[in-house]
Each structure stands twice: as structure tokens, then as C-alpha cells.
Write a structure and sequence with these properties.
alpha+beta
């Protein structure tokens, strides 16, 4: 059965940090809006304290998580054990979007490896920490992180990425503001 925790314990932290991927889910306030669930991989997650996490948000074809967090802050992280004993861990929280022009960028960005596709950091105050059985999650073998995003960003060129973000990441599919044009 599932368990609630007062915070992210050292044991949960160690377990989470061993997972090769996680999922982030967000939703707009409007009932007609689209719920978003995004897989995340690479070395993009940092547990900053017993109730604070951050992830490095990489350039993508959309910016749903950013738009939803900007609108209402609601976010949940889900980690699944694809190897070893079955387990699911969730962190529910309130997030904020930190961009390269934000005062907090310098201190937070240094916690992550350099990545040409980095466009934001989602900083989250965790309000609820829970686990559940994970019996329905299949066992899968992790092979490696894909290098497609890095190659795509390098091929496009660092100078071209801001225009791509203006064109593709300015608004969510529901029209909510996501990344600022500058």
C-alpha cells in the first residue's frame, strides 16, 4: 500500500536519483484545457532539499509545462521503478519558471551539466511526497540516454535557438503564455 512522507527522505532521494527517467504532469486551470504529461531523462533533475526539487527544462516542440506552471504553479513528478522492486514515487508541488534572464538562473543553472538545449529551470516547492506499489509498471532495461536533443541543438546552432523558442515555445496549445519572446 502507498505511504505518505513528511518530506523527501534520504532513502527516497537515493532511490529517485537512481531512476533514469521521470514524468512531469501539469494542467491549466480551464476545464477545457489540455492536461500535459512529459517524460524527462538525461541528468536534468536535482533534489535541492527535503521539500524542494528542480529540473532543467530542455527545448522542445512545445512548452506546456512552462505555460501551466506560469499560470497556476501546479505540478507533479512521477518516478517509476522499471528495474528492481516495483515502486512509484510522486512529488506534488507548486513550481515557478526560472529562465536565463531570471535572477535565480545563475545559482540554479550551475547545478546542472551544460546543455545547449536548456531553456528554463522549473523550481518546485514539494507539498506532498508519496509512494505506491508500482505492480503495474513493466520491467524494462535502460540502455542509454539518447543524444538526439543535444545533436539537434548543436546542428541548429546556439544562435538559432532563441528564434526557434520564439516560434515554437511562446504559447501552450491552449494559448497560454509560455516562454517570453526575448
Amino acid at each position: 500500500m502507498g505511504k505518505l512522507y513528511d518530506d523527501i527522505t534520504p532513502e527516497l532521494r537515493a532511490w529517485v536519483e537512481r531512476q533514469p527517467m521521470f514524468f512531469v504532469a501539469t494542467a491549466p486551470l480551464a476545464a477545457s484545457g489540455h492536461v500535459n504529461c512529459s517524460p524527462k531523462g538525461h541528468d536534468t533533475l536535482r533534489i535541492l532539499g527535503p521539500r524542494q526539487v528542480a529540473y532543467l527544462d530542455l527545448t522542445g516542440s512545445g512548452a506546456e509545462s512552462i505555460a501551466h506552471v506560469r499560470e497556476n504553479g501546479r505540478i507533479v513528478f512521477m518516478f517509476c521503478a522499471f528495474a528492481g522492486p516495483p515502486k512509484i514515487v510522486r512529488f506534488h508541488g507548486a513550481g515557478e519558471v526560472v529562465t536565463p534572464t531570471s535572477p535565480a538562473w545563475g545559482a540554479l543553472h550551475g547545478a546542472f551539466p551544460a546543455d545547449p538545449a536548456a531553456r528554463a529551470i522549473i523550481l518546485v516547492d514539494v507539498k506532498r511526497v508519496s509512494d505506491s506499489c508500482g505492480y503495474g509498471v513493466p520491467e524494462l532495461a535502460f540502455v542509454q540516454d539518447r543524444d538526439a536533443m543535444k545533436r539537434w541543438a548543436e546542428t541548429r546552432g546556439l544562435a538559432a535557438l532563441p528564434q526557434y523558442r520564439r516560434d515554437k515555445n511562446g504559447h501552450s496549445i491552449d494559448g497560454l503564455p509560455a516562454l517570453d519572446p526575448d
